[in-house]
């Protein structure tokens, strides 16, 4: 496996963790996975800051252990530069379909991969 493969695998692992209701419902886990400069434009069109996402994700759909879950598919990634991975994939959730794009950043060897940016776009 190459460094690029390892980087993409780490980003995919982080992305899948953020889709897991157990992680989504735990602000401390969310905080560990989001970059200090994180922003998101959700499929709703709303823009989120890191602080808002940490405070609110546990109340968002897909965060309940006994509720519906996001179903990701066709997840792929590419290393854009050292320390920067771009992921693309699709999700289905309660009959809604969205295309998603995330940037994962690793600042140095002492830090973990963290989501820097995420965008969801509804599919009509």
Automatic annotation (TrEMBL):
* Descriptive protein name: DUF4440 domain-containing protein
Query: Which SUPFAM superfamilies is this protein grouped with?
Result: NTF2-like
Domain DUF4440 residue range list: 16-115
In terms of Gene3D superfamilies, this protein maps to: 3.10.450.50
InterPro entries listed in its UniProt record: DUF4440 (IPR027843), NTF2-like_dom_sf (IPR032710)
